[in-house]
Amino acid sequence: MLNLKKKLGLGVSVLAGLGLALSSVTVQDANAAPPTLTDAEFKKASQVYFDRCAGCHGTLRKGATGPDITDTKMLKKRLKKLESVIFNGTNKGMPGWGRTGEMTKEETAQMAKFIQIPAPIPPEVGMADMKKSHKLIVAPDKRPSKPMHDRDVENMMGYVLRDAGKVAVFDGDTKEHTGTVNTGYAVHILRSSASGRYFYSVGRDGKVNMIDLYTKKPKVVAEVKVCLDARSIDVSKYNGPKGNFVDKLAIVGCYWPPQLVIMNGETLEPIKIISTRSMTYDKNEYHPEPRVAAIVASHADSEWVVAIKETGLVWLVDYSDLKNLKIIQIEAERFLHDGGWDASKRYFLVAANMRNQIVAIDTKTKKLAAKFETGNKPHPGRGANWDDPKYGPVTGTTHLGEGKVSVYGSDPEGHPQHAWKVLYTLETAGPGLFVKTHPNSNHVWADNTIAKAKGANKKVCVFKKDDMMAKPNCFTVTNEQSAKTGKVVHFEYNKQGTEVWTSVWDNQGEIIVYDDKTLAEIKRIKAPWLRTPTGEWNVYNTTNDVY
Ligand code: DHE
């Protein structure tokens, strides 16, 4: 029951950055001592919630990768208990934010109170807001028509520097740093254009930057902010009878507002907004916040494949006629998260991590192909595809909830007896986020980024494709400097598939390049500006979905 209602009267300017427009905030508790936060504490807690909690629990806190933590539920829990969970984490995958040093005791205590207060509802973002934020810095006809350098654009590597809000670009051949550009807040991922000439970045603040790789140094040529919270972006890749869409369109998937935004791929001018608010696939219940998770672009059709997290639908969005838009909605599984293509690029394999399942969508028949359990919270990134000597084409995923790579058949036409079932599992050093390979490599690399055992998140595990049952080579990537707080995350191959680039995620981060054949370290890049590298992408592999 409500026993206290208090208007906090929050300053609009501070919350505007976060996109929160509060008219009133209610503080409530079932017990005699309701939580209270000052204006300043509430603003700070809102920001911390956005940075650390919203990704898993949702802006409205209704739950997805993390459970439902709406205020009415949280009011039934003791503050001390909530503080302890936030500080120490749980065995079910919740990070211990205090334990890892990412939240102070004070922030933990404030967060426990904050989640007992109703969630503030951020505003919508419409076309007028987007257009206001749009900047065409260099018009397409003013851009160079060929590279202004002699580097191989296809072998360039883009690096996300998360907490710096920047993207750094390296020459994959020489390993030289070619430049760094400013991007969105807590920048999340990169995708490259279908022609391979641009990188597109998306920040957690919904800001998109288009980075030209033909200029002497990488240069932002357009930017726009299309949401208040976002994780995914892709481009139109199709060139066929329905038209040539190479570099023509781009799409962003927003967490808040829950919507898709289609933009001109050469200028980032927003063209169309599509709300994802609708019913859950299983119970047909209205969901106010169906966030857009992974997006992949088809190479065979004018289509984006879009995973809608909370409703459990995969949308096939046909971009060939935006005025008469066709979307196929495939019932998949709830809490879809990350995924990628199989080797043939016909099947989209996406994790429904809170359901412990991988969902396979057949983009040829435009139907669900299968869904199957792989382990405790699969998290493949885009997954890894290779030819197994015994089972034929297979795909693998790491897991958030256990140190395991599960390997499943992904060739239902050639090897129907093995398709869409886990064929074997491989032990890693602990729960991880990403798995990666390349057709020219005999190795499969897995990280252990969220492992709790001492030293495990500083290791990578490498398996041999021709002897997957052999013990993997799990070795430490960090050195003395980065060993204290650094964790290893994500991989990318160079274009040739002979070298592997990875990141030590730390305030003073590192980039390490390995010879894929010998696993010898080729290069360790360190620099004062190399802050929190959390992901890397090679132009050729990203354009062609090689993983
Ligand atoms: Fe990610 C991919 C969402 C935390 C690094 N991440 C994705 C995708 C989604 C997503 C939906 C798929 C995008 C696509 O393919 O179109 N990530 C989320 C979250 O909601 C979550 C769990 C919590 C949050 O608050 O954001 C989250 N992600 C992280 C991290 O903590 C990581 C390690 C570092 C960071 O940026 O904070 C991280 N996510 C990545 C990377 C990819 C990614 C590197 C792309 C993988 C690829 O190979 O392309």
Structure description:
- Helix 2 (39-57) packs across helix 5 (105-114).
- A hairpin with a 5-residue loop joins strand 33 and strand 34.
- Strands 1-8-7-6-5 form a five-stranded antiparallel beta sheet. It has a four-stranded antiparallel beta sheet with strand order 4-3-2-37.
- It is mostly beta strands and 547 residues long.
- It has a domain at 14-114: Orthogonal Bundle (Cytochrome Bc1 Complex, Chain D, domain 2), CATH 1.10.760.
- Bound molecules: heme D.
- Heme D (DHE) is lined by residues 55-56, 65, 162, 188-189, 231-232, 293-295, 337-338, 381-382, 433, 489-490, 534-535.
- Heme D binds at residues 55-56, 65, 162, 188-189, 231-232, 293-295, 337-338, 381-382, 433, 489-490, 534-535.
